[in-house]
Amino acid sequence: MEYLAEYGIFLAKLITLLLAVLFVVAAIAGRMQRGQGNAPSPGSLEVRKLNDDYRKAAMTIKASLLPRKEFKAEHKAEKARRKQQAADKRARLWVLDFHGDIRASALTGLREEITALLTTASEDDEVLVRLESAGGQVHAYGLAAAQLMRIRDRNIRLTVSVDKIAASGGYMMACVADRIIAAPFAILGSIGVIAQLPNFNRWLKERDIEYEQFMAGEHKRTVTLFGENTEEGRSKFQEEIEDVHALFKEFVGTHRPQVDLDEIATGEYWLGTRAIDHKLADELITSDDYLLKASEQADLFHLRWTGKQPWLARVLSQTTDALLR
User: Fold this and answer.
1) Domain ranges of the chain
2) Catalytic residue among 161, 168, 190, 287
3) How far apart are CA 258 and CA 277, in angstroms?
4) Which of 77, 78, 91, 270 could bridge to 274 as Cys pair (CB 3.0-4.6 Å)?
5) Which residue ranges in the chain fall short of pLDDT 50?
6) Listed residue (165, 156, 101) closest to 130, CA to CA
7) What is the pTM assigned to this prediction?
């Protein structure tokens, strides 16, 4: 037991040191960014027509399978089909990707991509968001969901595809869609709120270290890492979490009125097949198959915003994620 206690102390010191290092690095990164002025971070929008990717893949296989004469005939026929499709007025499907971390860092690109497509997309178009996220900060995912609502507000059909996971804040985003499709073993749900933190007050007292905290406002700080937490503070903190959960449930209920909130807003998650039963999703299909079928009738355009993030900011982001996960 004494060994475990010493190990716990060592671990606490190590975490404290790492947090201090991260604080210093963040301060340096902030100074560097301020030194660069208020100019927006450089970036560019990439647009790729997925139909062309499918055609190239098909022709590559046919080149290996068909005799040379037959392949030439098929190649000629394919060119004619492409010419006819270019002349026809076909539906358009815009494809976006969102891979979320705790801070929803992909939000920067999502905002740019949605702003770009709204300058061109019409009510006859469709937007497919390939979403993958286990959730994270409430305010960040709230803004990400609001970005998707911009598409709905323009009366453009929005489909969200979940191949792996859309849980907690990820599902907050997904539920905005007109339609949610999911792979059979994708994870959906986790409509709940969680907060946790260690408290080092007892350890500080044992070493005769006094910690002082000053506040203006009764509930400016409810619980703390180093101070002595009170039952009143814990109760207030729990009250705040319950309120966030209530807002989360209200949001899901507004956008997916077909779900039974008492049944699904317990913090649990369900795999794709079970998610269909609970009306958390509408159809079992992978994004790959959905797009391949759609390409027969529509032109598919994949949008990707590539922003150049300073290397120091990237290191900080990756390190913070590693510590928090």
Assistant:
1) 1-41+310-325, 43-181+292-307, 191-267
2) 168
3) 11
4) 270
5) 37-40, 320, 323-325
6) 165
7) 0.79
